Amino acid sequence: MKFQILTLFPEMVMQGLNTSIIGRAVENKLIEIDAVNIRDYTLDKHGKVDDYPYGGGAGMLMQAQPVFDAYQAVTKECIKKPRTIYVTPQGKTFNQSMAEEFAKEEELVFLCGHYEGIDQRVLDEIVTDYVSIGDYVLTGGELPAMVMIDAIARLVPGVLHNDISSQTESFYNDLLEYPQYSRPEVWHDKKVPEVLLSGNHKKIAEWRLEQSVALTKERRPDLYKKYDKSMQAFKRLKKQKRKYIHMMEQIAQGRANMLYNKGMDILLMDKLSGIYMMSAESVESAKVMLCESSMDVKIKSGGVLMIVCDPDIKELLVKDYGMETENPCYQACYTSRETLHVRHKDIRPLTLEHKEYVKEHYHSDMKYIEARINAGIMYGAFVDDKLVGFIGGHREGSMGMLFVEESQRRNGIAGSLEAFIINKLLEQGRTPYCHIYEGNIASFKLQEKNGLYLCDEPLWWIWS
Ligand code: ADE
Question: Which residue's CA lies nearest to atom 5 of ligand 1?
Answer without folding.
Answer: 89
